[in-house]
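Any chance you could type out a protein's amino acid sequence plus the matching backbone structure tokens because I've never seen that pairing?

——
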Amino acid sequence: MHCLKSSDFLPRLLRMTVAALLLALIGQASSAHGEASIEIKSVRIKPVEGAYEFDADFQITLNHKLEHALEKGIVLYFVTELSLVNSRWYWFDERVGYSRVREGLSYYALTRQYRLTRGALSQNFGSLSDALQALSRVRDRPINASEELIPNAEYTVELRTRLDIAALPKPFQVETLGSREWDLGSGTLRWNTRLPSQKLQDNSK
């Protein structure tokens, strides 16, 4: 019967431990690489002609499932929503400003181009990375106010962006039930801010 010497046991155990850790790290890296995610990078509310607009930047990553859906001709719609909320200690909070941006990302196999559609406007891209970069930039989006927004007053801002599952074809909606591969959203980011003052109009000639 072969006996393992104590002098051999510790180096062998160390090698096995290191190998297990490496495999775990490789597995985590592979899993992370295949995950879809949306991260809010920055947001800015700015005054313009007696009203307010916002700019936002995101980092959007698609997984293989979503990329494959694009290649099969499925349009992926993304919705970005921003709310201005007036917090009231004596009553329920009131939403006084709202903006909603809906954009469609599609792929055309004949031209091998990706298309980003915003309302009646569309733009073509030669690669998915370029299309996602454009999708990640929201600029000059008006905030519709239900009442007059007061400069320098404090409001709660709520911002989120997500994949609109309801806009997918019915068979794909069934597939998304309980599937994390289709669960793509930033979650809601909330913070308090004071609206910037409106810029004074220069009427001098």
User: Anything to note?
Assistant: The mean pLDDT is 84. The two ends are 103 Å apart (CA to CA). The helical segments are 6-33, 64-71, 128-135, 170-176. The chain is about 25% helix and 40% strand.
